[in-house]
Design goal:
This protein has 458 residues and is α/β, with parallel strands linked by helices. The protein is built from nine helices and 41 strands. The radius of gyration is 30 Å and the shape is elongated. The chain starts with 10 loop residues before the first strand and ends in a 13-residue tail after the last strand. 41% of the residues are buried. It catalyses: alpha-D-glucosamine 1-phosphate + acetyl-CoA = N-acetyl-alpha-D-glucosamine 1-phosphate + CoA + H(+); N-acetyl-alpha-D-glucosamine 1-phosphate + UTP + H(+) = UDP-N-acetyl-alpha-D-glucosamine + diphosphate.
């Protein structure tokens, strides 16, 4: 990968490569293919064999997995043997070992379940996944005898010209009988490259006349990632799967070719995603929303019936019926309550904005708490940083912040208070009070039914 980051942690649709494989393995019990066995079998957490820079992988996945360490990298057979102590310590001790490569993120839980059920139903010593290809490839070829029985897997670099014509190839997904597996791995000879190959177990089982079963899957599911070109190719496949999942679930995606949605994103039915939209992280979007065009959303919670146009949202929370944009920005810690209207070129950071508040254009709220039914007019800002630390601004319910008002934090504007256009507020404003000027001073108290003649914006 030409990277200081371990290959297994390179991301695909917002999830590390290994995370895709673990998700597929963990979902096996919920597949239809596994339903008949669900009550009779016990499964364990996956065991991940770590090698170079394995501590980074263990830190990333934590207790989601068990871990074994391959001290020397001497091939796939040697890697699997490194897991023996960890596997044999499980209770109950498993009789079947399912093996997957950590760099094959396109494998699905359904095909893994099919391999497992085939293995158990046929009582095979080895069951593995194969695929058909019409194009030359680097995958090992499946060699069968005249009766169709598998005899061996031949790696490309030692295959004969006739064997290279074989179109059935190996995928790297195996089921083994545990007792046979460990004893055979311990006796596995090194190959010509000085390593122990997992694929050599097939020839050994064939020579012993052991039962070898196969399940045929799609070649796409067997793709391994060895460089960034292959990573990009797999990204296209995974993203198309994600888009199709949402569309089948009732989400309208007008232009799938120009829409990017991470695998962990959740979207409610009847939401419309417009072109040029990028939705990443563990974002959740409710039903009947309209998102885009040209919108970026990351790690954000969005309620129902929201409209987000040409804007950026990151680590924010929006309740139902919120409108944002065009060209606005919700930064981390922004919380927009029900019915907030945030117009063009506005920004909210680390602030709570109360229900039905209007913040229509060219405004900034940072480190603020804003009440309900507030009008925050064009050009108004909270001046929250004094050069050394941040301070908070509090605005009460139904306050009216006139155009180009600067609120110099820490400051509180009381309920039903008004600020005049261009006011610089450096002191707290009492409730139901009108202030104007630089610095702002009290003009008068107001009756609640008053509408003072000061410039605002909606």
């Amino acid at each position: 990968m030409r990277s200081t980051l371990p290959k297994m942690l390179h991301q695909l649709a917002g999830i590390p490569l290994l995370g895709h494989v673990l998700t597929a393995v963990e979902a096996i019990p919920s597949t239809s293919a596994f339903a008949s066995l669900h009550e009779s079998l016990t499964s364990h957490r996956p065991v991940v064999v770590l090698g170079h820079e394995g501590e980074q992988i263990a830190a990333a996945f934590g207790e989601r997995c068990l871990y074994a360490v391959q001290q020397e990298q001497l091939g796939t057979g040697h890697a699997l043997l490194a897991a023996q102590v960890t596997v044999d310590a499980l209770q109950p001790v498993p009789e079947t070992v399912l093996v997957c490569y950590g760099d094959t993120p396109l494998v699905r839980s359904e095909i893994l379940a099919s391999v497992l059920t085939e293995h158990l139903s046929t009582q095979a010593t080895i069951t593995f996944l194969t695929a058909q290809t019409e194009l030359p490839s680097d995958y090992g070829r499946i060699v069968r005898d005249s009766h169709g029985q598998v005899r061996e897997i031949v790696e490309v670099k030692r295959a004969t010209p006739e064997q290279l014509e074989i179109r059935e190839v190996n995928s790297g997904v195996y089921c083994f009988q545990r007792a046979w597996l460990w004893s055979t791995l311990q006796a596995l000879p090194r190959n010509a490259s000085g390593e122990y190959y997992l694929t050599d177990l097939i020839a050994i089982a064939g020579a012993q006349e052991r039962r070898i079963a196969t399940v045929q899957g799609e070649l796409e599911e067997t793709i391994g990632i060895n460089n960034r070109v292959q990573l990009a190719e797999a990204e296209q496949i995974v993203r198309q799967r994600v888009l199709e999942k949402h569309m089948y679930a009732g989400v309208t995606i007008q232009d799938p070719a120009n829409t990017y949605i991470d695998a962990d994103v959740q979207i409610g039915s009847d939401t419309v995603i417009l072109p040029g939209t990028v939705i990443t992280g563990k974002t959740t979007i409710g039903s009947w929303c309209r998102i885009g065009p040209g919108t970026t959303i990351d790690q954000t919670l969005i309620g129902d019936r929201c409209i987000i146009r040409n804007s950026a949202l990151e680590e924010a929370i929006l309740e139902d019926e919120v409108r944002v944009g065009p060209f606005s920005h919700c930064r981390p810690g922004a919380y927009l309550a029900r019915g907030v209207r945030m117009g063009n070129f506005a920004e909210v950071k680390n602030s709570y904005v109360g229900a039905e508040t209007d913040m229509h254009h060219f405004s900034y709220l940072g480190d603020a708490t804003v009440g309900e039914h507030v009008n925050f007019a064009a050009g108004s800002i909270t001046s929250n940083f004094d050069g050394k630390q941040k301070h908070r601004t509090t605005i009460g319910n139904r306050a009216f912040i006139g155009c180009d008002t600067t609120l110099v934090a820490p400051v509180t504007v009381g309920e039903d208070a008004y600020t005049g256009a261009g006011a610089v507020v450096t002191k707290d404003v009492p409730p139901a009070t009108v202030v104007v000027g630089v610095p702002a001073k009290v003009l008068r108290k107001r009756e609640l039914e008053d509408t003072p003649a000061i410039q605002g914006g909606e």
